[in-house]
Amino acid sequence: MNFKELEANVLEWASEKDLLHKSNSMKQYAKVLEETQEILVALNENNEQELIDAIGDTLVTLIILSKQNDLNIVECLEVAYNVIKNRTGKTVNGTFIKD
Asked: 20-41, pLDDT tens digit by residue?
C-alpha cells in the first residue's frame, strides 16, 4: 500500500471511531506525545519491533490531528521540507546544528 492509501484507511478508521472533530485536537495531541514517548522507550531498549510500531502509531496520531484541523499531512510535510531543504550547518554528535 502507498502512503495515500494508508492515510485514507487511517482516516476511515478514525471517522468510524468518531475522532475527527476539531474539538478533540488537544486529546489527540496528547496521543501524539504518548506515541513519541514510546519511540524513546523503544530506542532506549534497542527494540526494533517496538520502534516500528511506535513510529507507525505516531504517524497515525499525526494524520488524525491534521485532519481534525482541516490540514493535509502531506502538505504539512512539504511546508516543513521547504523550510529545511536549503539549510546549511553541520552535524555535531549526531545532531544537525543549523547556521
From this structure: 999 999 999 999 999 999 999 9
